[in-house]
Amino acid sequence: MRYRFLKHTADAKFQAFGKNLEEAFSNAAIAMFQVIVKTEKIDKKITKKIGVKAKDKESLLYKWLEELLFLLDTEFFMLNSVKKIRIKKEKETYFLKAEISGDKFKEKYERHGAVKAVTYNEMYIKEQKGKATVQVVLDI
Q1: Residue 81 to residue 99: CA distance in whole angstroms
Q2: pLDDT tens digits, residue range 36-95?
Q3: Closest CA to 1 of 18, 25, 14
Q4: What's the distance, CA 68 to chain centroid?
């Protein structure tokens, strides 16, 4: 299972899973876009490189998802997949570099929702040997 949605009274809440933190972050991005559109139906016409940095992993997750929303809002970029992702820590800062693919929004892509923002509400990251889980609540 890559992700699962959880019950929440007003917003969208999900947990994303992976064998490591990078895979969990990738699956979180897919889960967030699943709130908006069926990501598997988005063509892989555009490839983009993204980089974000933060002082802790939760802030890195927040900035990663917010950067994807920024691309949606400013360039109408709809995510299909995360092709490559790397998270590393240097001194006191975490860095995320990713290559993503997708397409600009077109009428053929049926939107079924919207995401206003990522929140820190109920956000957590759990890492164990060979397993990572992230939880996110989205303001919809």
Answers
A1: 9
A2: 999 999 999 999 999 999 999 999 999 999 999 999 999 999 999 999 999 999 999 999
A3: 18
A4: 7
- How far apart are the C-alpha atoms of 18 and 127, rounded to whole Å? 10
At residue 132, does pLDDT exceed 80? yes
What confidence score (pLDDT) does residue 1 get? Answer: 79
What contacts 88, CB < 8 A, 6 or more positions away? 94, 95
Answer yes or no: are the C-beta atoms of 24 and 134 closer than 8 Å.
yes
- Two tokens at 137? 């609540």
Say if pTM beats, i.e. exceeds, 0.85.
Answer: yes
What is the C-alpha to C-alpha distance for residues 102 and 40, in angstroms, rounded to an integer? 10
**Which residues face 5 on adjacent strands?**
14
Give me the amino acid identity at 63: K
Which domains, ranges and CATH numbers included, belong to the chain? 3-139 (3.55.10.10)
CA distances from 39 to 22, 52, 80, 129 (A): 19, 22, 5, 29
